[in-house]
Fold this sequence. Notes:
The structure holds 2 protein chains of 2 kinds. Chain A has a single domain, classed as Winged helix-like DNA-binding domain superfamily/Winged helix DNA-binding domain (Arc Repressor Mutant, subunit A, Orthogonal Bundle), CATH 1.10.10. Chain A has 4 helices and 3 strands; from the N terminus they run H-E-H-H-E-E-H. Chain A has helices at 7-20, 25-33, 40-52, 75-99; strands spanning 23-24, 56-63, 66-73. In chain A, strands 1-3-2 form a 3-stranded antiparallel sheet. In chain A, a hairpin with a 2-residue loop joins strand 2 (56-63) and strand 3. Chain B folds into 2 domains: 1-89, no CATH class; 97-210. The A-B interface holds A 24-27, 39-41, 44-45, 47-49, 66, 68-69 and B 24-25, 27-29, 31-32, 34-36, 44, 47-49, 53-54, 57-58, 61.
Amino acid sequence: MGFPISAALLDSMVLAIVEKEDTYGYEITRNLREVADVSESTLYPVLRRLQKNSLLETYDREYMGRNRRYYRVTAKGITALDEYRADWKHHKEMVDKILEQ
Amino acid sequence: MNRIDFMRDLEARLGALSEEDRADALRYYDELFDEAGPIEEQKILDDLGSPADIARQILVDNGVSPDGDPEFMMDDVIRKDGTTPPPPVNAGPIENKNTKILLIVIIAIVTSPVWGGLLGGVLGLLGGFIGIIATLFAVLVCGGMALLVVGIVRLFSVPPLGLCEMGAGLVLCGIAVLTIVPLCKWIFGLLKRFINWIVYTVKKFLNKENA
């Protein structure tokens, strides 16, 4: 992928993935990797930031004899995601205006 | 380097963090190895890169300078001794918003002779312009029509002169029609811009007051 992914874009993609279904770190990275070149170490700061800003919250669920940490979007996170979606749509239209003329 | 080495190295480098932040980070990376499984362990290690880089990023994210705190900050928001500098002194007392609006209304009323006169002057000027244009139009059209009629009458007595007069009359009417449309557009455009400017100025003024 030739375009760098900004922190805001990464935040919004992670929020969107978790919004669809509560999930865990490894799975989120796997999802992101389908569209972008991100490593496991890229994701941790993103998750931590979203968590500290109360956009995501965590809970543990047992899986194969150990605890897996699941992420869930908060109400604040859903509001933020809506805003990100609107911003992204606007951004995309602006760029398309030039690219597709 | 294997998983154990990686985790030990990372933990050692996160010493400056709070217990909770450190545990959270270690937990995330530990879980990653669990998810990937022992077969994928080496691949994960390759993907992750050095614990030093990862630790550095985590420290920065948590507001810890990996290379130690600088002696002086440019903006000096946080001093070395932990105290914060006093907030900048406000230039004047903060007025009540309602008092401000009342003040604006009073000022507007008191100064009304001045801006009222100005506004009247501008409107008068505009009216004058419209009057001039209307007169010009009327003169051109009336003159043209009169010449046309005279020309038609004269056509029967002195045909060449009659034709000339008719032609001149038509030319005058043509000029009137051709000039009136752009002139009107120009005048109305000016008027619109003037009104927009007043609205914009008032809005800006009110916004500034509310800020």
